[in-house]
Design a protein that fits this description.
Elements: E1 2-6, H1 16-20, E2 25-27, E3 32-34, H2 43-51, E4 58-62
Antiparallel strand pairs: 1-4, 2-3
The chain binds iron/sulfur cluster (SF4).
């Protein structure tokens, strides 16, 4: 499953991502944070936030960690 992340070092707290996708991003005092890991159906909104992030601080990639072994989807 893909999960969104904000690189706190890059983020300039401009607020774009929260404006575009408030279900996923929340602007803190110094940088934006991801507030959920349940992003099903929010992929397009996350992609839009990525495109509108002036600092390229958002990533949306496969989560690393425990791999079950069952492939889902593929393609
Ligand atoms: S759009 Fe990018 S730079 Fe702006 S608050 Fe979100 S992560 Fe930070």
């Amino acid at each position: 499953m893909k999960v969104p992340r904000v690189d706190a070092e890059k983020c300039s707290a401009c607020g774009n991502c929260e404006a575009i996708c408030p279900e996923v991003f929340e602007l803190g005092e110094e940088h934006s944070c991801v507030i959920t890991d349940d992003v099903e159906g929010l992929e397009a909104c996350i992609e839009a936030a990525i495109e509108n992030c002036p600092e390229d601080a958002i990533t949306f990639e496969e989560e690393e960690g425990e791999a079950g072994g069952e492939g889902d989807g593929g393609g």
